[in-house]
Amino acid sequence: MELENFKILGISLAIGLLIGLERGWHTRDRDEGMRVAGLRTYGLISLLGGLWGILTQQINPLLMGFAFLGLTSVLLLAYSKSLKKLEDFSITSIVTSLITFTLGILTAFDHIALASASAVIITSLLGFKPLLHGWMNRLEQHELHATLKLLLISLVILPILPDQGYGPWAAFNPYYIWWMVVLIAGISYLGYFAIKIVGNQYGPMLTGALGGLVSSTAVTLDLSKLAKQYPNMENVLAASILTACVMQFARTLLLTSIMNPAVFRALLPALLVMSILTYLLAFLLWRNAREFRTTEETALKNPFQLGMALKFGVFLALIMLLSKVLKVYFGDAGTYFLAAFSGLADVDPITLSMSQMSKESLEVNVAAWAILIAVSVNSGMKSLFSWFIGGRALGFRVCGTLAGAIAAGLMII
Fold this sequence. Notes:
Largest sheet: none
Structural class: mainly alpha
Mean pLDDT: 80
Distance between the termini: 62 Å
Number of strands: 0
Order of helices and strands: HHHHHHHHHHHHHHH
Helix content: over 70%
Shape: elongated
Low-confidence stretches: none
């Protein structure tokens, strides 16, 4: 028992020293007596928490509240004294001290992994202050609103939706449909901020890749328009469009891996070959391209729009219902026809609906073929966009590459 207590106190001290290292470094330019707490103090605060945790287990857990209040009083007194000298109104150190004390207590109650992980996260959060403040300063109002809306649909609306089927063939499951909306919105949200952070400074290839996370169609349309403004730059523009298309293939694999691993395994060989061939030719086009610089950004207007999410949810529900109807009345041919029609607009709805149906009544290979048909039709649409908007030179490069890649993928599935 004594050995176990020494272990607890050692871990408590290590947690306090870890947090104190960051806090001490942050206030290293201040005189020793001008800081509320430093490296040693944070170590002692966490050790104090460990000692009180051990003690209260032997006596009465209610004593923990008195210890917490006593430490809070001491810290507030020290804060008020330092405030007169430094005029520093930040209470970060006070809150961090109380958390450090609590983590010391957690170790005594055998929550060592939780306390250690929390210490690492807290230290990282404190250390990344300049980076986090820099991001906050760059955050625009519509991006903040988009973030709040995404949190609303994922953390507030999703948990209260019923998880059961309604309507014909129980095709409408509100929870499942909304969960897929959250999934798609989250991927697009991350892609938006990735391309905003990177921008165009690292080249069109990377811009195309990040833009493809949000919408490969939007990237295709934007870059095809640039072909008219920047003649003789078809190689680099085609490379960027093809890279965005590769991200569509990767996005499809990501969705199926989350929704239905069996469909993912069925699609993997075909989409992997398509991705490798497309990216290889994109890389060769980029290597043979002239240097290309433009200050124009890919037109990704908003990281998340609630109206678009609602429309996607309705469209997804309709696709899932039609999938059931066409499967019942027309068999696999009806499923393939719907996949081709859906691919004209978007690949995600048919990918999600086929992944779900293959868990219930649809054969895995039929679902894989339907998704691959949608991907092929969607790639064909982007090829046509590049040809008619960007011109023959750009269209030839994009169409030829995607046609070859799709043919290779269809041959091995």
